[in-house]
Structure formats: C-alpha cells, structure tokens
Design brief:
With 175 residues, this protein is an alpha/beta fold. It is built from five helices and six strands. The chain is 31% helix and 20% strand.
C-alpha cells in the first residue's frame, strides 16, 4: 500500500509566542522528525501543509515569520508544500489531486492543531476514501482550550479517531 506522510501546520507561530506553544512542543518536533526520517528511508513522500491566512494583519499571512514552516523540521527540497486557507487541507487545495496522481492509498498524519486542522483533515480524508490511515503516537499536538487542557484534547480526539478514522500506532512501531 503506497503511503504519504502529511505534516499539518507545524509553523513558527507555535514556537514564537509562549501563549501559542504547542503541548510538549520540543518532543513533538523530535518525534515528527523521526517520522520524517522513517518516511525518507522507505521512500514515502513527505507533504507539509501550511496554513495561510488571507488577511495581511493575521500572524499566518503568507511571508510573515510566524507563517513559515518551523525551522526545526527536517525538510528536503523534494518535499511537497501545500498551502491551505481553511482547516481542511483538502478544501480548495491540490492535495487530493497530488495523492491521486501519485497513487497514494494510505496517509500518515502528524502536526497541529489536534482539534482543528488535524481533526478536520483526518475526517475529510476518510470521507474521500482514505480509510486505512495512521497516526503515530505523540506526533500531533495543540494548545490548552477553554474547556480541556491540551493533553485532554489530544486524548479525547485520539479516542474518537482510533479504529474509526485511523489507526494509532506507537512511536517504536516502524512504518
């Protein structure tokens, strides 16, 4: 089964501002980089999704420092970067076409934020026919919410996703 790794919205905004620091962000970047390394060893394409706001005043407006993909990510010139303007990485982007053209059947998800762009994209992928997807434990995160702290949000969403929208595997499980 041909796979692709999709890393969603790991952008500088989550590292430049303490109020937006992702839960366990240092370990998160290390874990995502290990996942990227495994993907490259198996010739699995790596796709970075980059949220791009349309308002010049927003932190994630194209070209701003906070909009950049995080400098700590292990990126390569061969990686695909797809900009999105909504929570769903498939909405009005080239993602679906790219996956279909490359005959990708299984998606491996990582990134941020759990309850927003990651959740929306995971559910959309399932509805679009990608129904055997994976999430490696501790490769996605968020910030504290008004009702649940970040760890609670992560656990809640993983419980919903698991064996419905994707399979969650331990970090020591190789791709």
């Amino acid at each position: 089964m041909k796979q692709a790794l999709i890393v969603i919205d790991v952008q500088e905004v989550f590292f430049n501002h303490p109020e937006y620091n992702l839960f366990n962000y240092k370990q998160l970047v290390s874990n995502i980089n290990e996942l990227i390394k495994q993907a490259r060893e198996k010739s699995i394409p790596v796709i970075f999704i980059q949220h791009t706001d349309q308002d010049e005043q927003d932190l994630l407006f194209e070209g701003k420092e906070d909009w950049q993909l995080h400098k700590g990510l292990e990126r390569a010139a061969t990686d695909k970067i797809i900009q999105k303007t909504k929570w769903d990485a498939f909405y009005q982007t080239e993602l679906l076409d790219y996956l279909q053209q490359n005959k990708i059947e299984q998606l491996i998800f990582a990134g941020a934020q759990t309850e927003f762009c990651l959740d929306t994209t995971i559910r959309a992928a399932y509805s679009l026919g990608f129904q055997k997807n994976l999430l490696v434990k501790d490769t996605q995160s968020t910030i504290d919410g008004a009702v649940l702290n970040a760890n609670g949000i992560i656990k809640h969403h993983e419980a919903i996703w698991y064996n419905r929208f994707l399979t969650i595997i331990d970090r020591d499980t190789k791709l």
